[in-house]
Amino acid sequence: MKFLEYRNIGLRKYIQAFFVLLSLNIGWQFLSFYRFLESSGFSGSPVRPPGVEAFIPLSALVGLRSWLGTGFFDTIHPAGVTLLLAAFVVSFLFRKSFCSWICPFGLLEEMLSQVGFKLFREKIRMPRWLDIPLRSVKYVLLAFFVGSVFLMMSPDAAVSFVNSPYNKMSDIKMLEFFLNISMTGFLVFAFLIIMSVIIENFWCRYLCPYGALMGILGWLSPARISRNEALCTGCGACDRACPGKLTVSSSKSILSPECSSCLTCIEKCPSAGALRYHIPGIPKPQNPVLKKYGLHIAMVGVYILLIMIAKAAGHWETSVTNEDFRMLYSMLDLY
What we know:
Layout: H1 12-38, H2 57-70, H3 78-93, H4 97-102, H5 104-120, H6 128-151, H7 155-162, H8 165-168, H9 170-179, H10 183-198, H11 202-207, H12 209-219, E1 224-227, H13 237-241, E2 253-254, H14 264-268, E3 275-278, H15 288-312, H16 322-330
Helix pairs in contact: 1-5, 2-3, 2-6, 2-7, 3-12, 3-15, 5-10, 6-12
């Protein structure tokens, strides 16, 4: 059987940085839009960036429930639903790759981990007896959110929520939470940052419910990292490098939902060909550019293509006008 194989991961950091810069730009545009609402529409006419809906995933989950239950595609936060579906597809096709290639919080976690490594000169690992139950927390949180939306909420209730004033202003309320953060909220974020410095990928590994969902999709993915026992030297470099704490050196194939396709194990492996990322049934490209960067192109290309399709289908821009936003903002304290 032929395989599609890759060893180069040099562009991953640049791809992550691109999405972080894109997120910061979206945040700046949204802050300008918020100032526009604060001034009752007297500070210009900035455009609300649809991409901000990526940061209200619970609203997107309800929008998905509405669409699956009634066929009504969310017109209030359509970009949120689109981005959630795009993350699903990328994570299924390329094994949870959304978390390590596109999600800006993934890069933040990696940077905090690097700070911890410089401080402690080693990667601090949770003992197995504590690591395993803590990893289940994100799945418990996922079960709570999915159960609340898909089991406890009827399709009609989902449509009602999607069109509610609260949901229309959920992104504004999210921004105000951060602009006027309470001491409790500040302490929670400080705790998460400190723990992410001490324990590698603390948030992603133990608490992120959407990471858990991407991991389940990744577990079902056809893509995988395989080890060639004949070429493997058993040095353990892959195990030490893996941010998911997986025992790559003793596995024939990596099928764990903790694998995010970051390819760090392949980068650190001293034996060429011992580890490979492949999709069974897809032939190895002959073009040298595709051979070297095909995975990067495919992963980001699929994500961007789905967004372009959604835009062409009219599932990107919100139906809420600036005038509607101004009116809803004037009554923000009521909901």
